[in-house]
DNA sequence: CCCGATCATGGTAGCGCAACCATCAATCGT
DNA sequence: ACGATTGATGGTTGCGCTACCATGATCGGG
């Protein structure tokens, strides 16, 4: 089973002797090629190629016999050869900082839905919030001559930006919104989102508001949400405080732990804005278990609008971002550019919505 | 910005007239090639190739000057050319039925960690629990001449099995365990897992036990968990009942809804085994909100061992499967086979563990 | 000190496919 | 009815890289 042995005989006729150019046949993929199909159908290879790639340009008669030959031989086109020959790859790398966070998974789903229908293949890259790794990934993935690129975030290492800028391919930077994207940009302002939540909490009467988030140096968007809250506090003349932070990935368990830590460090807090719903849900569950009254003792808010936030008791106030849309729009804009259609504006603000629920 | 115009001039000298073989230059990827690096470094292209792929076989002197040339020119190898020439693809498709379920995301992470280190690229395919789509995906992905394939599940459409069997490439079927895998198999017995949970519930004194799961016709593994429970019930001489089922993807919200429906349809129930933790957690939250006593009025159990299950009140009894391990082991076995190392046994049972918590 | 072994490097020939032009037949306009 | 166009098909070349062999240099053993 699973032998990789070449099926073709080592040599077929001629030059059995004499000079250098030995009639060797390289070990090959033992697969049916375009030429085989062409011979079977009695046409030229290029005609088979056309029949498969632009069926309209081949007569119905030939197309039928070619289709039959394809089916009989079980021909599967070799993508590498096609892409090498046409310098057109139908491959689109998507670079995200994490898969642990459901948000990115949903974005990827949004992208894939669109790409798959258009016959493009998604190549997944996970930077794990490491800029050096991002550079390496971009560099590697460029070797695939991608038709376009989707990358999360606008902040890159110097060299990453250079690579992305220099490769001359359609690019969409997603998730956050910025003034000077390299090419296209689909996302939302996390600063505004943070302010939105800050204003909501203030309006609700909370005055001693804190922020919890991990790895804010690496997670620029979380940092922006904090800055938004901070600005809202400043605008309202309320006390601003540094974020409660720690060095670990987000998880519900961590959210619960950070809730307790924050309350211990700053017992005067009356509201906590968590960097994401994973943390916030964990905090809610911890509070429920420990008998901490939410929002009586402390209000809790999150970000992302994960479905589960609507089900907890109390349900979680959060900011809902259109994750699937970000992916779908980014993919659509990329395809538009690739196919030469009008891609629309270079920058799309997908916005976000405050979902006010019981936890505030 | 982002122009796709070829950078090379249309033609460079000579044959401006006369015969057919026009000195045209095809629109190309405008990229630095191996040959450019070779010229810069003053060596033959093949030497550059070796310096990059088998550094040990090139003298340190040359290697250094080649590395410098690579860096200066920003050379990125063209994967397609390499794979076409070597008929060795370094591409591994991973076919899963869903991304909404965190389990598959974790498996993918496990796979990617291993593959990336070995220089392989993961190609993601999502069947959405649709066998026809699976066939199509397999067929498409085979066009990438993959070095190996990882696919979730052992049940495929006839044609899918034929394709997988016929392609002669290392294959790992993951998630569930079966008697006759096509090639290799890494997973666990969902039947046993179901029985394990059934026995636990019975041992705990529950006697009127139901099962909740969606799309059991498509989700074979969930069905096996049901059968396991069913067998445990039969073994104990307890009443067996058909599963509570519905046609929608799993979500916490659906879990809550199904809890209420089940209790309404069968008020005598004293325990419910949910097909997965997403559902079960939703049921727990619903119960908490509606004042349904768990496990007093009804016990609730899940499957997967998602982290959040440990945090709810009551915490969720579940079956923990080693998701990351499944991915990592599958990838490792695949790589072993590809590189010719001993892959070990064709079938690996990763097992699972009952996590008894407060909800039962 | 010569001969074969070992090493580093280079030349050449494809890998399978699509771009480009040429060619030939069918169709159209007037 | 005839040339000009259009449409369908084929021949040739090359995409960028690596497999295969050849070559020359270096080395050690007898």
Quick synopsis:
With 360 residues, the first copy, chain A, is α/β, with parallel strands linked by helices. Chain A contains twelve helices and eleven strands.
Tally of contiguous helical segments of chain A: 12
What is the end-to-end distance of chain A? 62 Å
Number of domains of chain A: 3
The CATH architecture classification of the largest domain in chain A is 3-Layer(aba) Sandwich
Class by alpha and beta content of chain A = alpha/beta
Largest sheet of chain A: 6 strands, parallel
Most residues in contact: chain pair = A-B, 63 and 61 residues
**Strand segment tally of chain A:** 11
- CATH fold-level label of the largest domain in chain A: Rossmann fold
| Biggest β-sheet: strands ordered side by side in the sheet of chain A | 2-1-3-4-5-10
Radius of gyration of chain A: 28 Å
Q: Please state the average pLDDT score of chain A.
A: 88
Shape of chain A: elongated
CATH class of the largest domain in chain A: Alpha Beta
Quaternary structure classification: homodimer
DSSP strand (E) fraction of chain A? Answer: 5-15%
In the CATH hierarchy, what is the superfamily of the largest domain in chain A?
A: Response regulator
Low-pLDDT stretches of chain A are: 1-28
User: How much helix, percentage-wise, in residues of chain A?
Assistant: 40-55%
Architecture overview:
The structure is a homodimer of 360-residue chains. With 360 residues, chain A is an alpha/beta fold. Chain A folds into 3 domains: 1-10 and 22-77, Orthogonal Bundle (434 Repressor (Amino-terminal Domain)); 90-189 and 324-351, Rossmann fold; 190-320, Response regulator (Rossmann fold, 3-Layer(aba) Sandwich), CATH 3.40.50. Chain A has 12 helices and 11 strands. In chain A, the strands form 3 sheets. In chain A, strands 2-1-3-4-5-10 form a 6-stranded parallel β-sheet, with helices on both faces. Chain A has a 3-stranded parallel β-sheet with strand order 6-7-8, with helices on both faces. In chain A, strand 7, helix 11 and strand 8 form a beta-alpha-beta unit. The first copy, chain A, is elongated. Residues 1-28 of chain A have low confidence and may be disordered. At the A-B interface, helix 4, helix 5, strand 2, helix 6 and helix 10 of A face helix 4, helix 5, strand 2, helix 10 and helix 11 of B. Chain A binds a DNA duplex (30 and 30 nucleotides) through helix 2 and helix 4.
């Amino acid at each position: 089973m699973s032998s990789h042995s070449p099926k073709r005989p080592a040599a077929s006729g001629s030059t059995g002797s004499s000079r250098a150019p030995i009639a060797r046949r390289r070990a090959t993929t033992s697969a049916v090629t375009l030429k085989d199909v062409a011979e079977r159908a009695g046409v030229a290879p290029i005609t088979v190629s056309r029949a498969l790639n632009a069926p309209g340009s081949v007569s119905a008669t030939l197309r039928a016999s070619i289709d039959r030959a394809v089916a009989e031989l079980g021909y599967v086109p070799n993508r590498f050869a096609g892409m090498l020959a046409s310098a057109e790859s139908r491959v689109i790398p998507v670079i995200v900082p994490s898969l642990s966070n459901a948000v990115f998974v949903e974005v990827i789903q949004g992208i894939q839905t669109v790409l798959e229908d258009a016959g493009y293949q998604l190549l997944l890259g996970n930077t794990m919030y490491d800029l050096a790794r991002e550079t390496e990934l971009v560099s590697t993935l460029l070797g695939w001559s991608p038709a376009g690129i989707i990358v999360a975030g606008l902040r890159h290492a110097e060299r990453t930006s250079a690579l992305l800028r220099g490769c001359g391919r359609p690019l969409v930077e997603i998730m956050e919104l910025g003034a000077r994207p390299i090419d296209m940009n689909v996302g939302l302002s996390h600063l505004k989102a943070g302010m939105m939540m800050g204003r909501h909490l203030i309006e609700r009467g909370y005055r001693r508001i804190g922020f919890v988030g991990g790895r804010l140096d690496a997670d620029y968007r979380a940092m922006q949400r904090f800055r938004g809250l901070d600005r809202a506090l400043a605008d309202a003349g309320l006390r601003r405080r540094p974020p409660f932070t720690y060095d670990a990935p987000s998880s519900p368990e961590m959210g619960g732990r950070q809730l307790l830590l924050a309350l211990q460090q700053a017992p005067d807090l009356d509201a906590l804005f968590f960097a994401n719903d994973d943390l916030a849900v964990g905090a809610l569950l911890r509070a429920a278990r420990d008998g901490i009254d939410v929002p009586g003792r402390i209000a809790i808010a999150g970000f992302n609008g994960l479905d589960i936030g609507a089900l907890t008791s109390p349900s979680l106030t959060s900011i809902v971002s259109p994750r699937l849309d970000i992916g779908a729009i980014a993919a659509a804009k990329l395809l538009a550019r690739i196919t030469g259609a009008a891609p629309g504006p270079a920058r799309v603000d997908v916005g976000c919505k405050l979902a006010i629920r019981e936890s505030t």
